[in-house]
Amino acid sequence: xxxxxxxxxxxxxxxxxxxxxxxxxxxxxxxxxxxxxxxxxxxxxxxxxxxxxxxxxxxxxxxxxxxxxxxxxxxxxxxxxxxxxxxxxxxxxxxxxxxxxxxxxxxxxxxxxxxxxxxxxxxxxxxxxxxxxxxxxxxxxxxxxxxxxxxxxxxxxxxxxxxxxxxxxxxxxxxxxxxxxxxxxxxxxxxxxxxxxxxxxxxxxxxxxxxxxxxxxxxxxxxxxxxxxxxxxxxxxxxxxxxxxxxxxxxxxxxxxxxxxxxxxxxxxxxxxxx
Length: 275
What we know:
By secondary structure, this protein is mostly beta strands. The chain has one helix and 18 strands.
């Protein structure tokens, strides 16, 4: 699943210990250790940058991440997706790696690469020219306290967007800007806030029935989270994507007469367990 992660590895310091044999206090500092964390959950809808990836249906998601004290992070995640959006495929596999450091207690930075892989999915499964949906991005981010500003740039065509999908050119070099905040509330409550903008470097060769040709849009979101029973998190969120003329009636790749409101305002609930 597509995740926008801005983690900085923590330093682990052992507490003071007392050596009776020497009858003196000795401070022992352990070497920082790498960590491995993971999660699995179910969501009523898979939203990515304001657009549904599961055609409005529930999905199971999971992932794992390794973090080193040096600032290196690597991980992967999986999620269900809809064949209506990814013909021939039903799963998304994400792989990523990044490096970052803390500047001080408030500021930190991170840069990395992120890959989205859709096993079995291809435009040829919808009767079009052969084209993969696999996408690679480079990203750089800076964080201050609760806030993270991030820029993502596609290194490949953006989820198959090129002339085979009716665009004037390929979409390599597309940019996505995002501003995120994770705000702690009382006790085990928190809220995640998000704003982003997708800027395409191409347009449709022919307008949609609505007259729209430009796929650029902005998206916004808010997610309320509650942690309970040690490692469980329940979330409820709402997202909104602009450019309704372009995304209001998104057609299915596999059923020509089926349409879905991919953007607009959508809500979701999620239950997740961390380990």
